[in-house]
Give the backbone structure.
Amino acid sequence: MREINLNGIGMTSQRTRDRLIQRLVDEGVSNQQVLDVLSQTPRHIFLDEALAHRAYEDTALPIGHGQTLSQPYIVARMTEVLLGAGGKLSRVLEIGTGSGYQTAILAQLVEQVWSVERIKPLQDKARERLRLLGLRNVNLRLADGGFGWPEDEKFDGIMTTAAPREVPESLLKQLAPDGVLVIPVGTDTQHLTMVVRLGDTDEFKTQRLEAVKFVPLLSGVVR
Ligand code: SAH
């Protein structure tokens, strides 16, 4: 891997990062913990060198294999929704590791993160970046995350960063009592959706939030 400057210079400096954080505040992100973690996490190391100088623009950027690193506003918003619905989350499942950026943000805010990716080369790079940041509370798995985590585990929070047509039943099954699922849903028109399990029942409350644009949730594994 190339030599990496975690602190950044010029277009990746702390000053440029602070401007992005101010923009997120202006856009309505209000959870201070989330803002702090975004401010402290270098986004430029999650991109190829040629795109690193654009890391602190509030925009989605390509990471290869037809996939994208989500827009910082969306990362902040989804994290805020996930954390906001309950207390401190201990176990969180992410579907769509991609670059590993959202994974890194989650790993600093919850106890343990399990993250599933279907494209091996993306997972390999994500693993290296998480190691570089010293984040050890993350378990990565190469699998089709549409089926959730393969074992019959329960999670306080589940976040999906690729959009299915409908909320997958398999993910609802893996929600712990009062667990929260944050997921983009739809094809041409997508909405960020929050689903909460009501206590330890098999009933769920679904809330449709803002319109979003994510890559589709696809099936199968690419090695
Ligand atoms: N959170 C990532 C977003 C990457 S884009 C980031 O900020 O970098 C969405 C990711 O979901 C892609 O890497 C894509 O390969 C992955 N994905 C799509 N369908 C999937 C599936 N069924 N299981 C696991 N990962 C999937």
Notes: The pocket of S-adenosyl-L-homocysteine is lined by residues 63, 67-70, 95-96, 98-99, 101-102, 116-119, 122, 144-146, 161-162, 215, 217-219 (CB under 6 Å). The longest helix spans residues 14-26. The chain has six helices and nine strands. The chain has a mean pLDDT of 94.
